[in-house]
Design goal:
The chain has helices at about 1-15, 25-35; strands at about 20-25, 40-45, 50-55, 65-70, 70-80. It is globular. The longest helix has 13 residues, at about 1-15. By secondary structure, the protein is of the alpha+beta class. Strand 2 (about 40-45) and strand 3 (about 50-55) form a beta hairpin. A 5-stranded antiparallel β-sheet has the order 1-5-4-3-2. It has 2 helices and 5 strands, in the order H-E-H-E-E-E-E.
């Protein structure tokens, strides 16, 4: 089991940005939090039962969108320079 997790982690962090990057949710959460200083800003349940999560660094340096079923998570998009708006605020 440890070997499988290590392999999944290696694949997650080694794939080029164009490839889908997936790994165990807890590991992805830890990397976003500890390496990038990101916090979950939004979570919504998709029609297929998975969750879409938007993570962001509070100072606006980085953001990440992942999809997860609770056990695995896949990177959808990431970038820099974000702004946060409250629901109802004009964009």
């Amino acid at each position: 089991m440890k070997r499988l997790l290590a392999t999944a982690a290696a694949v997650f962090f080694a794939l080029p940005a164009a490839a889908q990057q997936c790994g165990p949710y807890e590991q992805v959460r830890q990397v976003l939090s500890e390496r990038y200083g990101e916090q979950m800003a939004f979570m919504g349940k998709a029609n297929d039962g998975r969750y879409i999560m938007v993570w962001g660094n509070p100072d606006g340096r980085s953001w990440t969108i992942i999809v997860t079923d609770g056990s695995a998570a896949c990177l959808i998009a990431s970038g820099t320079e974000h702004q946060t708006f409250a629901i109802g605020d004009p964009a």
